[in-house]
Amino acid sequence: RELEKMEVETGDVTTSFSIVNQNIRTANLTIASWCPTMDLIAIVNQSPEKNDSSFAVHRMQTWQRLFLISSDRRSKSDDQIEAGPIVSLTWNPSGKMIALGDARGIVTLFDVEQESQAASSGNAIEPVLTTRMHSNSITSLNWNEIPSVRSDPQLYND
User: Fold this and answer.
1) Cα gap 35→40, rounded to integer Å
2) Can you tell me the distance from the alpha carbon of 151 to that of 50, in angstroms, rounded to the nearest whole number?
3) Sequence-separated (6 or more) residues with CB below 8 Å from residue 57
4) What's the rounded Cα separation, in Å, for the pair 120 and 37?
5) How far apart, in whole angstroms, are the C-alpha atoms of residue 57 and residue 60?
6) Beta bridge partners of residue 41, listed in sequence order
7) pLDDT in tens, 120-129
8) Higher-pLDDT residue of 73, 132
9) For the segment 18-72, what is each residue's pLDDT rounded down to a tens digit?
10) What is the DSSP annotation of 17-35?
């Protein structure tokens, strides 16, 4: 089978690539984000009827779903935080963690490797952290590297 070719222009640069797989999504896809280091894509689907959303991570080449998490599973089992619809998502630079921000001001962190292993073995998927960061919607997230105290002695005194 011949692969379809596609070109994307960004300013003065044109990048060519081949489409190896196409999937048609019928759900309300609101966010898609590629992993910076692996062949993974994170997607968020909104359910307008329920004011709810689900979050999934798939392999790019095969579209194999590694795990799927609905809003009722985005909080730790011992937390009393009720998650809202997801409105922002970002991978950390290593591609091993994902942060989700929701409409109720909650940020949830997931360890991608840990979640994939738990899902494949049938175990419950638990976030690394769920916390209310704000009283309003978390519409943007970004990872920032903080220098350690030991790595830059001129910034910090022991």
Assistant:
1) 5
2) 48
3) 40, 41, 42, 43, 65, 66, 67, 98, 112, 115, 116
4) 21
5) 9
6) 34, 58
7) 777 667 788 8
8) 132
9) 665 555 454 588 899 999 999 999 999 887 676 778 888 998 888 888 888 876 5
10) EEE-------SEEEEEEE-
Q: Is 51 helix (H, G, I), strand (E, B) or coil?
A: coil
Average predicted confidence (pLDDT) for the chain: 76
CA distance 145 to 86: 24
Residue 86 in contact with residue 100, Cβ under 8 Å?
Answer: yes
Cross-strand partners of 32: 43
Please give the backbone phi and psi of residue 112, each rounded to the nearest 5 degrees, phi first.
-60, -45
Query: Which CA distances in Å does 5 have to 15, 16, 21, 39, 77?
Result: 11, 7, 12, 19, 46
Query: What share of the chain in percent tops pLDDT 90?
Result: 18
The token pair at 45 is: 């689907």
37 residue type, one letter: T
* Best CA proximity match to 102, nearest among 149, 146, 141, 58: 141
- Position 98: which residue type? I
